[in-house]
Amino acid sequence: MALMITPNISVGTAIAAILLTLSLTRLFPFLIRLKSKQGKEKQLLPLPPGPHGLPILGSLPFLKPNLHQYFSGLARTYGPVFSIRLGYKLFVVISSPSAAREILKDQDAAFANHVIPAAILFNYKGSRPDLLWASYDTHWRIMRKIVAREMLSPASLEAMVPIRRGEMRRTVENVWAKAKMGVTVHVRDTAFLTMLNMATSMLWGERAAYDCNEKELQRAIKELIGLFMAPNVADFFPVLAPLDPQGFGRRVNKVTEWIIKYLEKIVEKKKQKMAVGERRRDVLEVLLDLVEIGNPQEPFTMDDLFKLIMNLMEASTNTISTVVEWSMAELLSDPTKMRIAQQELDDVIGKHRVVEESDIPQLHYLCAIVKEALRLHPPSPLLIPHSPSSQCVVGGFSVPAGTTVLVNIWKIQRDPHLWGEDAEEFKPERFLATGKEMNDFYLRGNDQFCYFPFGAGRRMCVGFALGEKMVIYMLVSLLHSFDWRLPENVTLELREKFGTVLVMAEELVVAPAARLDKPELYFFYMPFEAGRRACAGIALGETMVIYMLASLLHSFEWRLPENVPLELREKFGTVLRKEKELVAVPTVRLDKLEL
């Protein structure tokens, strides 16, 4: 949904693009139909009140960069359900729990469709939308069921605990190395890369860094996400969409092609392993099996596979890294709350071991911190735009079919009538009213609809439970392992920047200091050393060890010679060898030995 007006593309530039591209001959019929449509709507119920705007442009020239705040101001003038015309498009903005309930629960099915940005639609060219943008139909249900069954089932999540633990320990190790060198840490980037490697490990069993420059994949995903919310004239004047006047559609296509080529290499390598019986039962293998089966009742193609994997990488990286950054920033702005959080960690875990996911339910204050960060800084402050499939009534007003509906959860979750006079303050204690963390039913969009940072209803985030757990796990690991402070002469600013997700206007950069009792707790796995002087050929070395071992095990059965016991004693030296050299007897195991 392209709503943000940023310094990169000014309002004047956007208007100029409209005026240069539009022709009166194309525009005139649309204005006639618009007037006729408005006449029919008035015969039913009135549209929600709102600003009048200018002819043709509507309120486009008056938009502010932080749309969630701008719309909150309009809600104070026009009420919790108001309408606003942006170009040719009608928008209805919801800013109250009761109206949100009407859309996300009472009339959930009617509002289950998402509005596809013109830049994304430009690239479909007859293919089916992905999980995020798909209409509420059979295809969407199939895709969602696959994600819920293969990635988010209790058994799948439990099986992936070692992957998540390993990646978190690597992150702690990397931060420790920076702390020893006095290097600052970019919290958002650190969390983003952690989640990217965690996602690829869960999807196909390898960290992104093993297959390409991880920074390249990171940049590609960030660019693609940014294009979703770029200020695109074609979103406000659909007649221009096929022309792609600002080139956003072509840029999306270019980035998508790069990611798909990267994924094609992963898929080809996976297919080769599956062909010789090497299986891990990871997500990619399951998806490839679904493509191979070709169930006509539940069709799933390679195009669907690539789009779904991109969805999962986008969702798991951007949102989680942003919430981790906001949580850390709020704690740095209030040292007292930081001390309370770290004291809870010391009481529950101590400084003699590392954090495990299983510790999270006992960390009530840390869980409340994340919930409070999600309340003040919801990742999608206006949610993904919804669109009714038929004419509906919300708050006593008519909402025509095809209207773009935005739910301003940022305003709802800061409403002093719901949260008290301190609604604008960061106060985790509000989630500890019962002596424990808030019941998870709030996350599903409870009947009060005052707290639903991951949306609610049929189109709520399918991975909300895992997402919140990963935010807590990462934040807890960083707070337990390190003390944090701002660099000298740096002032913390909690200003927001509206976009695909609600990020900090200035990226959070902090200085870590180790706080655990034992240095070895910071090292997860470093057989080739770590830091600046780590082995330069680590990737090749590990690959060759695996290649040689796999070749020997694949080609032969192995046993010890008769009357020879196996001893695993070590002998120290330039390399750590077995004290006694291993001697084994091979037996050919292949049906046909090809030289």
From TrEMBL:
GO molecular function term, any single one: iron ion binding
Cofactor(s) demanded: heme
Transmembrane spans: none
InterPro entries per record: Cyt_P450, Cyt_P450_CS, Cyt_P450_E_grp-I, Cyt_P450_sf
Entry-linked PROSITE patterns: CYTOCHROME_P450
Keyword NAD (UniProt): no
UniProt cross-references to SUPFAM superfamilies, sorted A to Z: Cytochrome P450 (SSF48264)
Keywords: Heme, Iron, Metal-binding, Monooxygenase, Oxidoreductase
Cross-referenced Gene3D superfamilies: Cytochrome P450 (1.10.630.10)
Residues the entry annotates as binding heme: 461
Domain of life: Eukaryota
PANTHER family: CYTOCHROME P450, FAMILY 706, SUBFAMILY A, POLYPEPTIDE 4 (PTHR47951:SF3), OS08G0547900 PROTEIN (PTHR47951)
Family note: Belongs to the cytochrome P450 family.
The protein's name in its UniProt record: Cytochrome P450
